Amino acid sequence: MNRITHVLVVIVLVFCLSCAQKEGGTRFFWQISPEKQLFDLAEQQYQDAAYNEALSLYQEYLSQFPDTKLAPAALLKVGMISVYLEQYEKAISVFNRVQTIYPESPYAREAGVGKLAVYYKTGEYQQVTLYAGNVLAKPLAREQRIRVNLIVGDSYLAIKSPLEAYYVYLSAFKAANANEKNKVISRLKAAVSLMDASDLSNELVKLEGRPPGGYLMFQLGVHYMEEGYIGDAVTTFSSFLENYPHHENTGQAEKFIADLESSVSTDRHLIGCLLPMTGKYEKFGHQALEGIEFALTRFSRERGGPAIRILVKDTASDPLIAQKGLHELADSNVSAIIGPIATAKNVSIQAQALRIPMIALTQKPGVTEAGDYVFRNFLTPRMQIKTLVDYVTKTLKAKRFAILYPDESYGDIYMNIFWDEVMKAGCKVVGVEAYDPKKTDFAAPIKKLVGLYYDIPEDLVEEPSMIPQVCIGSEYPEVQDMVPDVSDILTGYSTGNWYDELMESIRISQLAAARKIEEEEGPKPIVDFDAVFIPDSPDKAGLIIPQLAYYDVNDVVLLGTNLWHSDKLIDMAKYHIQGAILPEGFFEQSITENVNRFVTGFKYIFGSTPGFIEAVSYDTAWILFDLVSRPDIRFRAQIKKELLTMEPFLGVTGTTVFDPNGEAVKDIYLLKVKGRRFVEITKRLTVNNME
Length: 691
What we know:
Helices cover 54% and strands 11% of the residues. It is built from 28 helices and 15 strands. A hairpin with a 2-residue loop joins β14 (669-674) and β15. The longest helix is centred in the middle third of the chain and has 22 residues, at 282-303. It starts with a helix and ends in an 11-residue tail after the last strand.
């Protein structure tokens, strides 16, 4: 016999016994009315949290006694049990019935509170805030009003409106008795922790020392501390201790004051450098250090003021050694760190924990996710592609694109980013083909790209020339200007008899022309794109681009990444590469004065031409040197704050600022192939790297 059956048997027995009377007319306990007995049994099951059994009894009660005075109470309990059982649609339906049938009763007001609870549990937070006004307009009991305010406050927190949450929690706090205040105060603390400094200050003044002013003042001190306003933070925590000496946060406030005062010992003119001076990436480490040292030399000569120093720790291209170096720099009280390069992701979490501003020099994703003390100043794939797509779509008016990419990690990353950016620009990618990066014949993917992928008898197949064709005429003015210069044509050919090599090139051109005549009746390539993007090294791009021309993929703009910035690409692709466009983080031949001065001075000291690593390290160092030389910058937290809010810095790698996530937003270079050299496209576009 299950529990419900047992309960029903008890109901029947009680009902029968109630009909009997003791001699003399005296009624016993079991002679209470069946209506009351059934309701009491349901209430007992409800109190025991036996909700399924209680639900059956309440429903039985409503079936037998629908018009009694306890019917609204029974109906309300059905709705409340439905909430417990997560039967939310049923609960709303029942609460609506209570409000409709008994509109002016206390049960209707409780049903309104129940509906708010259901809206919150189902994630309808806006509905809670909208409907709460109707509920609070009724004459609620104190406990009901507190419950409503807690539900509404929780909903405001869920939609990230901490100030509104604070107001309704404060209302509940004022109405709560001593036992209820603890439940409310935990919510108040959550809202206060999310409020900004101006709201905290305003509300603190309104309270005039009344609770929960202590929580607001303590949180205001935390805000000042996190924002780098050390003096304001110490003052606020001191006032907190004076006004609220017995508050639960007094111990933490005392610790914060001690930490802030000890942070004054940070050597603000000492910059740490975490660089791979040995190991797999030592070449990059030495290049970065040269850029930093050159920045220090020029900054000290031009700015004067307090002597800025650098302290270098070798990461040895090893994550564990890099972490050890970080702690050594922290022990030396450096104010900020430049680097690391290869081990940045391993170190960033610890730099955040130590609250040391760190500007990493790496392309690896996810570095700045460690927190607000970690920054990155480097040329990223997204930065390159956004600059490239912005220019080609807005200035050149290209609308349709093709992608030919190596089937490997580098190619996959750039292909996906390029595709994303083209779509964001409102344009289309009409063809995408991958190729085996280990091969040198790219006929198959090119044919697929232009609709020529069909079987040809083997004896008619001719390998495409790996030697560039000599063009007598061209639609590119740059090429026409170059053709008469025979020495220009021959530059890049192998040493030997130049005449034989020239004749071989002409012969291959003639063979190609003959083949075109033979295939005149065959299908023509479908070149339905304005530009083709090839994210690969100059070695591979130099092989692919002539083969594109071989299959009549002409009159399209060639697009690449910064890897294309190599004379080898021009040597290999020659006239076919004319007009190609690529992004770059640094261009040593830039026409800008600051780049000319940088390159000239660097060559004079180090005897070599600087590249991107030297340039971006130089810019990064200059940004930090400029900050720590200011008399108002005394603490690491202030450096962090200033990096996030600094004016655009015009450096040799373009204009740089940092977004709220610590990522560099840079105005990078665009280059174009013209003749036998790369030239700067003078109109550079600001790249918003916040996506």
